[in-house]
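Quick entry, no commentary yet.
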Amino acid sequence: MEIKRTGEIDGVSNTLTCFTSPSGSAEQNIDYVYTSKQISFPKGSSSENFTVPIKSNEKNFNDLHFTINCYTTNTEHIDSSSCKQVQAVIEDSSEGFGFCSDSPMSVKENAGNYTAKICRKGFENRTSTFEVCVAKENMTYFEKFHKSIADKCEKVTFQPSDLQKNVTFLVKDDPWGEQEVSTFEVSLKLGMGLPSFGERVRNVSLIDDDSK
């Protein structure tokens, strides 16, 4: 972060202290390294830098923020509130393929189909093909004979201009159970050479909304 000094600078030197504080969505020592440093402005200097090391967090794929505070023992030398406390943003630079943030986590059994939304971040100017698969998980004995969603894979091709693809799977209303909730698994079979962001496998709730 660049800290600027204005006013009379040629014959004056100033010192202030800046430090990071864990207020924000970023986690200290996971997303960034706690840093505290004394910043000295020698005579004639109009700007100095405060540097905070950023760490790669493979579990979080959103923009994060933390706070930087600055103070000096001579409060007359800080006349801008923006210098006392600023919010720093860590932008997500992950690349690859993954589930879109609004890809459904549940579907009703009589909805007719389930649509998984797959997004691409970065990884541009190329055509990429992979499979999106569904598989029923915690099946009961009866569900094996009345499966509401069949194990199946669909091929997906992202052209260079594509940022999102929707993949739809048939959902059938089973005739035996009422008001039960089960799950099925949606997975990205990316293969070699294709990176991912976030999870490659997601459990989706299948809700039987029939009633008698």
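second:
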Amino acid sequence: MNRIIPTLTFIIVVLSSYSQNVPNGGFDSWQTEDFFVAEDWVSYGQTLRTEDAKIGNYAITLNNYKNSEGDFVSSSLYNVDWQGGGVDKFPYDGNPLSMVFYAKYDLAPGDSAELTSGFYEKGNWIGDATIKITGNSGNQYITYSVPIQWYTISKTPDSVYIGMTSISHGGNAEGTGYISIDDFRFENIGHRTVEINNYDFENWVNEGVVYPDGWVSLDLLAFNFWGGFLKNPSVVQTDQPFRGANSLTIQNFESWGAPDRGLCFTGTDDEDAWGPAFKVDKKYKYLQGYYKYTNGGGDSAEVSLNMFVNGNYLGDGRIRFGATTEEWKFFSIPVNYYLDVTPDSATIRLFSAIDGSTKSINTVFQIDELEFVDELSNTVGITETVSDDFILSPNPFSNIVTFKCEGGVYSIFNTQGQLVKNGSLNNGENSLQLSSLNSGLYYIKIKDYNDRQWQKKIIKQ
């Protein structure tokens, strides 16, 4: 893989202000899709905090609900993380005779909720209590006291397993329903014994999804469509921006033991990734911004866009980055229009790596200050990049420049950011006849068939 290194920067001073024509293009505004998780417990499905409590401020509700496939599914709560996390039963050294709790419920006919406690001593199962609950509680909390069956004489546990589920049988639920639980404890002839962790469900942690306002992240899609979370977030709010208060970080994440790419795009739902997501009212020439990239090995980040008119595709643009850069670096994408028509909407997509070829869990893509512009002179700087094996000569030149590349296309811009010449390239040596250009400073942008890109300053004598 070619190593891309910065070799020259020339500064264009601007006196105009920065427009905000890309929604939240500075990534200073963020939202949180709340999802409260009971502290010290592990939940699945729609296991939610409720303010309809018997005691204190909160109780916990386990719902039977219809999923996106149209099936009625259940919810559950455990004090064991079955996926190998940090929760593995609660320490407990009481002398209980019963499992006691408050329950409020309304379950579909044929469904039954189930609550189970299992007591351990030195790793051995020594006692348990189980109850199945059906029907409804008449819109009120009912006290349940379930006798514990002991299998040893000692009755001296050192830990306890607890499981709650909104259906007791395998497969799907029969319909919608719920059961709310509060003040879960163990008693000995009416006296409370040692309290378990967060027994009253008063302690909650907001593990909701944080995402930039006006954008949709892969994390948000996973939460909204599947009710779950990525193993590590793919979109993160960063407080070390190029400008303003925050910037956006998109990073690869672990999916089924392998790295996968992070994704963020403009809009409010999944269809906006490839459809009209926000309004525009001009035929902008470029999308520009600033980025940093940490390539964990073999990856390429991507920024791509589409323009629309009346819901139809009107234009596009794309750029990819492969080289690691620790400092903020300017980029621009020329918008390629299919027709000479003013667009009415656009969408922008940001990827930490290329779909289907993600290589490293350590790849991180940071981006800030996205905006559409008419001229690149509306930026604070343009950076020239060349490969260590890319040679263009002569430079300065009189009429012809020569270089080698693996096919692709080239574009030549003047110092005002205006396109003055473009065309296709051969696989191998290329000689461009540029005698029609006036004497002066230009820069040439080259993109080969492998989507590698270079930008170089050239001088016409």
